[in-house]
Amino acid sequence: MSKRKKVRLTLADLKKGEEAVIESFSDEEMSLKLMEMGCLPGEKVRVERIAPFGDPIAISVSGYMLSMRKDEAATINIQMTN
Predict the structure, then answer these.
(1) What distance in Å separates the CA atoms of residue 74 and residue 82, rounded to the nearest whole number?
(2) Which of 42, 36, 32, 34 shows the shortest CA–CA distance to 12?
């Protein structure tokens, strides 16, 4: 019997045009900053733009566009939408 390790996806893993739902945060200090900007658990997010070298990224969340660094996006755990 093989045990599969559940892979945790983060916002930093998404490609341009992909959508997901925010599930949780891995960094408590960063989560406060992100929640103040509208990144709340249960909110739908979409990657709108990615800079030429991959950092920063622009996402749409809570009805507006937000730019963030990849390391910040990596603290946001997501669940893919179908």
Answers:
(1) 21
(2) 34
Rounded to whole angstroms, the Cα distance separating 32 from 40 reads 10
Spell 23-59 as b/e; 16+ CB within 10 A means b.
eebeeeebbeebeeeebeeeeebbbeebeeeeebbeb
Q: Position of tokens 């920063």?
A: 56
- At 35-79, the pLDDT tens digits run 888 889 999 999 999 999 888 999 999 889 999 999 999 999 999
Q: Residue 70 in contact with residue 13, Cβ under 8 Å?
A: no
Architecture of domain 12-80: Roll (2.30)
Whats the size of the chain, residue-wise?
82
